[in-house]
Write a structure and sequence with these properties.
By secondary structure, this protein is mostly beta strands. It has one helix and 15 strands, in the order E-E-E-E-E-E-E-E-E-E-E-E-E-E-E-H. It binds manganese (II) ion.
Amino acid sequence: MQPKEISVFPTGNKNDAFAQYFTGQSYLNMLSVEQVPIGNVTFEPGCRNNWHIHHAEKGGGQILLVTAGRGYYQEWGKPARELHPGDVVNIPAEVKHWHGAAPDSWFAHLAVEVPGEGASNEWLEPVSDEEYGKLK
Ligand code: MN
């Protein structure tokens, strides 16, 4: 599938660096690599990242700013939240979660890396087809 320009921010290239932590094809364009890192992440339909945790000893976490398409955010043990352009998701450090596209829609969000002390990302298991398959 060809990358789609679905946001006002350029889609960029295939997200090869993190492909092992995604199901399906995603694209990553780092819009800011100074001060606060901000990436434009685009997901093809059905694409989502693995369960993961943004660790930090103080501060940290991630903020998602939804720019295009339809997708989901889910925290471990909670129902998935459907996302649309204009939605904002505050993800505290140490919360296990995933984010990605709906099965039938492209999806794009800006991922803001909230500065923190001792910050690191831990990538965990994929979101199962059984679990993802429940989503519309
Ligand atoms: Mn995340």
